[in-house]
Amino acid sequence: MTRAAKIFGSAYFVACCLLVLMTSVLPSGKGGPVAVFASPWSGPAVEIVAEADGRIVHAGKLSWIAVTDQSDPDLIARLYRAGAVFVASAIVAQACAAWTGASLEKAND
Predict the structure, then answer these.
(1) What is the top-level taxon of the source organism (predicted)?
(2) Please, are residues 81 and 69 in contact by the beta-carbon 8 Å criterion?
(3) Does the first or last residue of the chain, that is N or C, have fewer Cβ atoms within 10 Å of its Cβ?
């Protein structure tokens, strides 16, 4: 196998892994909790959620992460317009809440 083929194979493998990773953390649009990440130069994530008319489900000690409930399909777009750097799926939201010691079980009621 030539050096160019090895480089191509490695790059292809990394690109496929990144694609799978990104599609697994992006919100599905079916509702449920989503994690909102703010940038260091913007306001806290809870302010971004409030500006987007979202319902804050959990806000821990880290001001750059907040969890909100995706009540309507337009919420994701409003979160980005309000200054969110990244909005992650319910799996990431549950992991962030568990990391800070919170439970999202009550949030789904």
Answers:
(1) Bacteria
(2) no
(3) C
Q: With a threshold of 0.70, does the pTM exceed it?
A: no
Place of tokens 């009550």: 106
Who contacts 72 (Cβ-Cβ below 8 Å, separation ≥6)?
none
Q: What is the pLDDT along the chain (109 residues), one digit of tens a residue?
A: 788 888 888 888 888 777 766 665 666 566 678 888 898 887 899 999 999 998 888 777 778 888 888 878 788 889 999 999 988 876 766 666 666 565 555 444 4
The whole-angstrom separation of Cα 91 and Cα 27 is 9
Q: Considering only CA atoms, which of 45, 25, 44, 27 is closest in space to residue 36?
A: 45
Q: Give the span between the Cα atoms of 67 and 54, in whole angstroms.
A: 10
Q: How many other C-beta atoms can be found within 10 angstroms of the C-beta atom of residue 102? A: 17
